[in-house]
Design goal:
Helices cover 64% and strands 14% of the residues. By secondary structure, it is an alpha+beta fold. The chain has a single domain, classed as Outer membrane efflux proteins (OEP). The strands form two sheets. The protein has a five-stranded antiparallel β-sheet, with no helix packed on it. The chain has a two-stranded parallel sheet with strand order 1-5. Strand 2 (61-75) and strand 3 (84-86) form a beta hairpin. The longest helix is centred in the last third of the chain and has 70 residues, at 331-400. The radius of gyration is 40 Å and the shape is elongated. 24% of the residues are buried.
Length: 449
């Protein structure tokens, strides 16, 4: 008993420096801190970066090149009959400086960049849908652990009632046996001690389960080893506050409208369709552009060519502007890329029937499970009420000698098992409700009991 109490204090007691979270705060903290969601957000940013890269096609492009190099002396030009080169003395060498810049502005891609931009937008939406899918799965897992923690709190209350009853009966039994009052035998006392130890063992196991759930929530919160947390969760709600499910057809309609996988399918199809259009344009159409260039060089060790028809790379000033078209024709590669996009599009289309059937099956199955859990709660409540009457009657009758120790122990165990079955059925119903939110694409903003 002492060991189980130590574990219980370790889990339940809240150090002054510990982070205290209720159900909603815990769920929101997990969604804000979890690495999977952060990675999904970064994937969206990566898709946006690809989109920005495509949009930059219509931004002016400026290229600048410059250098400085040593150059030996050459007297005379290309049209002179004789030239003289000198490079043996240090004075024969001088600088050769060069600077050139080119400004290019794409005027039209004849629809290609527009198609690629549409594809990038669609792929960004696919990443958003993936992020929503991660969010739904993460929220469900967090709600599962929170409900499991609340279940341990609820079962603990029932178990404490049984422990209190058995402890009182054992204290009376020992006293009656020692004084000889009543009909309590040594066997009755031993039975009570056994029943109490069994209940204490269940308490220790319950505390261990809570500790495991506590560590699971710590992991989902990504807390450091030196960070502590206290969960101020409530017990599970009563059966009468369980949520009423919408009609099955309503749930199916919500799943069809809200499941992120449908957005992945639709936007993925749009992306590959746009890529196919872009590649078909790329096969024949050019880019239209405007460009301007300025280039200058200076080398004092070379004679300047005054003839304007003479190309002089060492002493020059050149500039100009032009309109142009550019083709990049590679039909074999283009057809191969198109075939790849067609296969990807076919893969997306192939997933649609499976997705439709799978989602509908999930919703129908969970709807039936929820209704079954509600029925189980009603049935188990009748048994739990009878077991409670049994335990109370036995606890009253045992000191009077009208009820045996065995009946009292069995009544306490029946009460504990009855409450366990009721609360487990309530837990199952709430967990199924949480999973229905996941499979219908509904993000729960709060715990509503």
């Amino acid at each position: 008993m002492f060991a189980s109490l130590i574990v219980g204090v370790f889990i339940v007691a809240a150090p002054s420096s510990a982070l205290t979270l209720n159900e909603d705060a815990c769920l929101n903290q997990i969604r804000a801190a979890h690495a999977d969601l952060k990675v999904a957000d970064l994937q969206i940013e990566l898709a946006r970066a690809t989109l920005k890269e495509l949009e930059s096609t219509y931004y002016p492009n400026l290229k600048v090149t410059t250098w400085a190099a040593p150059m030996f002396t050459v007297e005379g030009g290309a049209l002179d009959e004789r030239t003289q080169r000198r490079y043996t003395q240090l004075d024969d060498w001088g600088p050769y400086l060069h600077f050139e810049t080119r400004l290019t502005q794409v005027l039209s891609t004849f629809g290609r960049i527009d198609d690629l931009t549409d594809a990038a937008h669609a792929k960004t939406d696919v990443e958003r849908a993936k992020r929503d899918l991660v969010d739904l799965s993460l929220t469900y897992e967090a709600r599962r652990l929170i409900l499991a923690y609340r279940l341990t709190l609820t079962l603990e209350a029932s178990l404490n009632t049984a422990l209190d009853t058995l402890e009182k009966a054992l204290n009376y039994g020992r006293s009656a046996y020692d004084t000889g009052a009543g009909d309590v035998t040594n066997i009755d006392v031993a039975r009570l001690e056994f029943g109490l130890s069994k209940a204490e063992g269940l308490k220790a196991r319950l505390d261990l389960e809570r500790q495991v759930v506590h560590q699971g929530l710590r992991f989902m919160l990504h807390l450091a080893e030196d960070e502590d947390v206290h969960f101020s969760f409530k017990r599970l709600p009563s059966a009468r506050t369980l949520p009423e499910l919408p009609a099955l057809e309503t749930l199916l309609s919500k799943a069809k409208a809200q499941r992120p996988e449908w957005r992945q399918i639709n936007r993925g199809r749009a992306a590959y369709t746009a890529l196919l259009k872009a590649e078909s344009r790329n096969r024949y159409l050019p880019y239209a552009f405007a460009a301007g260039e300025f280039r200058t060089s200076w080398a004092p060790t070379r004679d300047n060519a005054d003839n304007p028809y003479h190309f002089d790379p060492y002493n020059e000033i050149v500039g100009g502007a032009a309109l142009g078209l550019q083709w990049d024709l590679d039909w074999a590669k283009s057809h191969a890329l198109s075939r790849g996009w067609e296969v990807e599009l076919a893969k997306v289309d192939a997933q649609e029937p499976k997705l439709a059937a799978g989602i509908a099956a999930e919703v129908r199955s969970l709807h039936e499970k929820y209704l079954s859990s509600r029925k189980s709660v009603t049935i188990y409540k009748r048994g739990a009420r009878a077991a409670r009457k049994w335990m109370i009657s036995a606890s009253v009758g045992f000191p009077q000698g009208t009820v045996s120790a065995r009946d009292l122990i069995e009544g306490a165990i029946a009460f504990t098992e009855g409450r366990f079955m009721v609360n487990s059925a309530i837990f199952d119903a709430l967990l199924i409700d949480a999973e229905l939110d996941r499979v219908t694409g509904t993000q729960a903003e709060s715990f509503v009991d």
